[in-house]
Amino acid sequence: MLLKSRLLLAGLKDPKILLALGAVTFISIGLFLLLEIADKQCPKYKISYEKAAQLLETCDILAKKYNFEKEEGLAYTETFDEILKKRVLHIPREQINSNNGQVCYSTALIANDLPKFAKKYIAVHESLHLSRESNETKANFKAGLKEPLGLVQTVFYSISLNTKVMFSKKLSFKDNMCKIVSMYRLFKVYFLNMDLANYYEWEW
Ligand SMILES: [Zn+2]
Fold it and tell me: What average pLDDT does this structure show over 179-200?
């Protein structure tokens, strides 16, 4: 312990290490400030009653298509293993709004293109929602404890999907910037306990 703190102190006295630490801190703060400024320039996501109704209808259609119950709260009394075993369904990503996962009534729908560990992680994450954990950051960390590799794989896979969209469509500079901002917003929702509702705006 003493040796460790001595080594640390010696390290801090080394100008090269100090410079590197300073540079990392400087770049992190700069990046954070840039993202915060960009965040203010990008519009909130608009949601109308029609869109909300459409989302409900999507669940309705999926319930018929995949034959699951249209009732909420069915998983409340079940153990976590039971939920994972009988309430998780893997379906094509485009059917769930390009999300990694989504809850419809008492069923967790998981995008079937996800890599192996991410699939497990998202199944645990959505199952936590089914057992009353509505907070995204808490669901994220609780699921991360069970499937740490899956959490890391999900983060990288999501970034790669978003980046592909950025390069495949010819987006304007602002649209590209807002795409990066949308990832930053997700980071704040899933890791920093920001309420997703902050980024939505009702329009009618
Ligand atoms: Zn979630």
Answer: 93
